[in-house]
Amino acid sequence: MDLAQRNNITVLGDGPATLVFSHGFGCDQTMWHYLYPHFLGRFRVVLYDLVGAGQSHLGAYSREKYSSLSGYAQDLVEIIQHYGVGPIVLVGHSVSAMIGALADRLVPGQIAAHVMVGPSPCYIDSGDYVGGFTLEDIHSLLDTLDSNYLGWSSTMAPVIMGAPGQPALGEALTNSFCRTEPEIAKQFARVTFLSDNRQDLAGLTTPTLILQSTDDLIAPVAVGHYLHTLLPGSTLCIVPNVGHCPHMSAPSACSEAMDRFLQPWAREHVD
Fold first, then answer.
1. What total number of domains does the chain contain?
2. Which of 49, 213, 216, 234 is catalytic?
């Protein structure tokens, strides 16, 4: 099975560098439609669906391979090596920010920069580390998801989205959650919310823009500050936004911060 079919690859635009957009849990590449058009005149843009999500080929899903984030990181490495032109910048939302960091570790030097949107290396509080949840919180969340995935999605997606005053965005995320095959979503939720990638990120020197919402149920501001301290080449931008998806609910603020950060890799003039 080729990559285009496996991950439903979309390639758009043109430029001296490639932006690879990778979506979060319960989402697919359509969640980037509020943000990526801004970059088409200056960058090559690659969009894809994680295996098991969106229009990816479900026949490619393996519970063994995707029992950890490393399986998704291997896929991402294959995508950037096949579709990347020039310097590669990974734009990862939520768990995909960690998938991008793991991919960077697999191919040192091949990734020029990261844009991490609402990232969290660990969702569970541990000692002085504030992840936003207790272990009991996460197990309760996963138990609820296991027993009634569609009900959980309908209740939680609007809360995760936030974006008061933009109810259509909550509906879009709810619909995306509900389109995901439940058994795959349940496993991916466990892989996501029980992961701890703090050691994988420690000392990663690749230039990184961290975009963190001012009010995010999933990734609190404290996580952004932690990552900024952990990553020596990082820039932290706190986006005025309620919710976990600022690329959808505050795309202008995200694109402005990205424009500044991405300037070294952008085409200077749009034809």
1. 1
2. 216
